[in-house]
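Before relying on records like the one below, remember that each one covers exactly one chain. Contacts with other chains, cofactors or solvent are not represented anywhere in the record.
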Amino acid sequence: MLSKKIGIDLGTSTILIYVKGEGIVINEPSLVAVNRDGTRILAVGKDAFEMVGRAPDTIQVIRPMREGVIADFVVTEGMLHHFIGKVQGRQRIFKPEIMICVPSGVTSVERRAVTEAAISAGARQAWLIDEPLAAAIGAGLPIAEPRGNAICDVGGGTTEIAVISLSGMVVAHSIRVGGNRIDDAITTYMKRKHSLLIGERTAEELKIAVGSAVLMREPLVTEVRGRDLVSGLPKNVEITSNDVVEAIQEPLRLIVAAVRDVLEETPPELAADIFDRGIVLSGGGALLRGLDRYIAMHTGLPTVIADDPQTSVAGAPAWRSRISRSSSGTSPTCAR
């Protein structure tokens, strides 16, 4: 009764933590700064983000999560330990109960790595929930009904697409394409088109500032600073949102192809429901301007964005109810 109930969206780009009764309490980048040999953690989250592209050779800023799965177990454990301790505060006697979302396509080995990292970081018990299911619940979809609900969760490392009915995933695909791949596409475009070298952080800022999935009648404009690949000197380039549209076509096509694959595998009765109700977008990638129109244009289905797409997974109401039932030991995904 005295232990905290915590839900964690352990994303490639961002980690969000929900605490029952308090809401979203942590929303920080999934970044960790370590010393050169990786034996000591120097900064986590926002503090590590400030070091991106500015750290000396003695400091590495790494993403312990890649494409939705753990790439560095030790660093991931340290990051979780830091954030769980931050949420716990001075109350450390009673270990928290934690539910973590994972991509639907991860293997059993990868699932075990996530649960072990949570237990090692201080959790009393840990549960896993598939990301599309959590996203659908957080978006307010009536997943318990015998009707088709289509969800597309565009995260930093993966995009999860699923058709859900009667509280289960009927069809689900997970592709390792997301916001990070879009950032990489922008970086490549700047090199090819403008001979300008920009960093990961600048590419993300450009995407947020003027990024769009569809052409705009009145394009947004911003200046991008980087290093000229010809002269080697600092250089400014003016970029519009329509330039970004050209840059990110490849990852967008992969996302649409995955959506179409799921729709093609959907049973006819559920497909009829989706035709009427459309597709719901969630995840940080859903904030890309015009992404809903892009998907609607290429699928012929109405597409809407969840009310709070970035936090819909971490704030899924089911996490509150499922964690509260955990004391009875009924959850089959419980790891001790």
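The longest strand covers residues 168-175.
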